[in-house]
Amino acid sequence: MEIKPRQTLAEEVYLGMRKSIIQGQILAGQRINEKEFSTRAHISRTPIRVALHRLAEEGLVEYVAHIGAVVSQITAKDVEEIFEIRIALDRLATFNAMTNMSPKDYEALNQLLLATEAANAQDDIPTVIRGFEDFNNFIYQASNMPHLVMIVARLRDYLKRLRDVSLSGADRRAKALVEHRHIYELMLEQNRPELGRVLTEHLAYSKTFILEEMAHLSHE
After folding, report:
1. Among 36, 47, 152, 195, which residue is least crowded by beta carbons within 10 Å?
2. pTM
3. Could you report the per-residue pLDDT of 4-35, keeping only the tens digit for each?
4. Is 212 exposed, middle or buried (0-12, 13-18, 19+ CB in 10 A)?
5. Which residues contact residue 110 at a Cβ distance below 8 angstroms, ignoring those fewer than 6 apart?
6. How many Å apart are CA 58 and CA 180, to the nearest integer?
7. Which numeric CATH code is attached to 76-218?
8. How far is it, in rounded angstroms, from Cα 45 to Cα 155?
């Protein structure tokens, strides 16, 4: 039996801050004051400083002269780059998953889609968003490419704040559901050329939607 060591305080602070940034509880452009955080959490500033440096390495935080650590703004260039990478990695993962999955796996993925479609019919947005994430995660895990899974998880986390906002619209959710169903059917048919085309279009549309959402938010 493998016994995992207890997380260090710096690790706990890092994970807590990272989750708060990804979920939008700490907003883009907001300063993270080490002293205030230390006082509020009743801990020294050292683990906070270590956590902030790790977040800076991930691009979630940046250091601004005379200000300190600030939650990074997501730029259009960031979105363009991330989706270029996502297209390549998602195609690779889905092609691998398509050949790895058993009939039982395909049925499980179908049931997941049915549950998400039912949640959307009830306008249950949080469940729909979780369903989309579960659909993607199912395929990533079925690809049997753990390093790819880790890379994609970081990229998806970076855009989670904007992605969740974009999926709050009924039209966007409905289109995404249709696209996921189409991806599933093409995987079942083992239609690699058409699957590659649909995946590229699906992610390109997601990118466009997020860029439009960014433009909208910047004018509010």
Report:
1. 36
2. 0.74
3. 445 788 888 888 888 887 767 788 888 988 88
4. exposed
5. 184
6. 29
7. 1.20.120.530
8. 29
